[in-house]
Amino acid sequence: MKTRPLHVLLAVLISGLAAAALSTLAPDATALPMYAQRSGRTCANCHVSPTLEDEEGWDNPELMARKCTLTCISCHVDPTGGGQRNSSGRYFAQSTVSMFHTQDRSYSDHDRELLPNDARWKLQQWLGEEIDAEDGDPSDGRVIPSSYEDVLAGMGEGQTGRGLQWGKPLGGPAEMAFWDGRYADLNADPAFQLGGDARGAFWSGSESVFPMQIDLHGAVHPVEHVTFATTLAAKGRTRVGPRVYPRRAFGMIHELPGMSWVKGGIFLPSFGIYHDDHTAFTRSEFEMDISEPGDTVTGVEIGTAPNYPFATASVFRTGMYDPEEVGWGSAVNLGWRDLGWSLTGHGMIKQRDAGRGDLTAAGVTWGFNPAYYLEWLPVTYLGEASAGRKTYAEGGVLNAEDYAAVNHEVWWLLRNGVNLRGKYDVSFSDLDSFTSMQRRAALGLEVSPIPGLTFTGFGRALQAPGDPRWHPDVLFMTHLWF
After folding, report:
1. The predicted structure's pLDDT at residue 6
2. N or C: which end of the chain has fewer CB within 10 A?
3. What percent of the chain has pLDDT over 90?
């Protein structure tokens, strides 16, 4: 058995913590997880501002009643991220992400439009619909609820929106549910909804076009505080398991105080940063690859996200599709995600008698959002450093591998719908030897012309272990979602 080089392991984690600490020392001047961190610069990314029609403004609710958070639950039905978007996520996609929006932009984005206002407004009128004041409180014409009392009085109710959302849950509206009228014409709290994500790519390394992701999402919200959600995924090739499988299938009690929840069923554990790039070393090498059915688990998860702090913990059973990997595990992910910075920690253990063996892993993530301090500098940075140990039996001999991975990603919001992206990944497959290091650097442009459509192109370079040369390639991706 190999012995763990403790000084190297500590160096990886300490370097990550040091970078995180430096990110919090910026001078105090003026989702994707990157979307969430970036959203700290303005509050109106994911809902209509009540101050538009309420001269008295908006009084912040008590902490345990707030729905504002920079964690995944703010935009996704699954509280730990990915998959179907909730009303806040749908509003964000339609108002902020694309060049041509169909919902009102945040005031902080008005000077980042690609087209003149006249052209933008004409396109918005063609693509969208105005909220009819008659749908609000007839006594004063207001249509945006500023308090739960407004919601109970019926203000903003009756919105149906555009998309595949229908009906209302019984027993509503709840205080912690999303409220009609706060998300323009969207059905904020539907009883039934469908969604989908599809990604296709061209990679110069294989000179081929191939599907990366085909997901169909569904959620049933029969009564307030209860939701059943699923994601049916199709893959061309997988390490183990079927090509069509449920990536998610769980029941959930949610809309609890402090944005808290309990869910049980099939899911991917919460560990580190949920990148859109599942090939990132911090994802693929820690069994967090959404393209691998064997990385999904069955279990129970609890979590809370009251504004800036968050915490998630789960216990689960492994080996859904491989009897050799049957075992148990647990994961935790917790920290603080503030408007201008974030610092979190995560850990996971998996105990299995065979297959990939036992896994013990931990790490830290950090983020810095200069745009919160300097609005003229719309740059956001996220990073992660994780290390782990795999223990497995081979030929009657017990082996152990200590490894680590570090990820850096920077986005520059050139204009709404146009992002310059830079990425740098490093991994050590064996911490006993630095010759096991591999690196990947990428620079790309992401363009989202309309809600539901994104094009991304990357120029990349990979340095394989033991090879001093950098090997370039090009990757183009298309993302369709609804």
Report:
1. 37
2. N
3. 59
In a 13 Å sphere around the CA of 268, the CA atoms on its Cβ side amount to: 28
- Which run of H or of E encompasses 36? helix 33-38
Provide Rg for the chain, Cα atoms.
23
Give dist(CA 71, CA 81) in Å, integer.
Answer: 8
Q: Which two tokens stand for residue 242?
A: 């079927």
Q: For residue 252, give the 3-state DSSP assignment.
A: strand
Residue with the bigger pLDDT between 412 and 6: it is 412
With beta carbons less than 8 A apart as the criterion, state whether 409 and 423 touch: yes
pLDDT at 230: 97
- The CB density around residue 445, as the number of other CB atoms within 10 Å, is 14
The 8-class DSSP code of residue 53 comes to T
Instruction: Return d(Cα 85, Cα 461) in angstroms, integer.
Output: 33
Q: What is the DSSP letter of 184?
A: B
**What 8-state DSSP symbol labels residue 181?**
B
Structure tokens at 210: 């191939």
pLDDT digits (tens, 9 = 90+) for 103-153: 888 877 877 777 666 666 666 666 654 544 444 444 456 788 988 999 999
Instruction: Name, in order, each residue with C-beta under 8 angstroms of 272's C-beta and a sequence gap of 6 or more.
Output: 282, 283, 286, 288, 333, 346, 363, 365, 384, 386
pLDDT confidence of residue 58? 79
Strand (E) positions, 322-436? Answer: 327-337, 341-352, 358-368, 379-394, 397-415, 418-428
How many residues comprise the chain?
482
pLDDT at res. 460: 96
- CA nearest 384: which of 436, 353, 426? 426
SS3 152: helix
What confidence score (pLDDT) does residue 444 get?
97
Instruction: Taking residues 324-332, report their average pLDDT.
Output: 95
Looking up tokens 């990915």 gives 82
Question: Which among 6-10, 343-347, 413-417 has the top mean pLDDT?
Answer: 343-347
- Residue 40 to residues 16, 337, 378: CA-CA distances in angstroms? 22, 9, 11
DSSP character string of 192-241: EEEEEEEEEEEETTTTEEEEEEEEEEEEEEEETTEEEEEEEEE-S--SSS
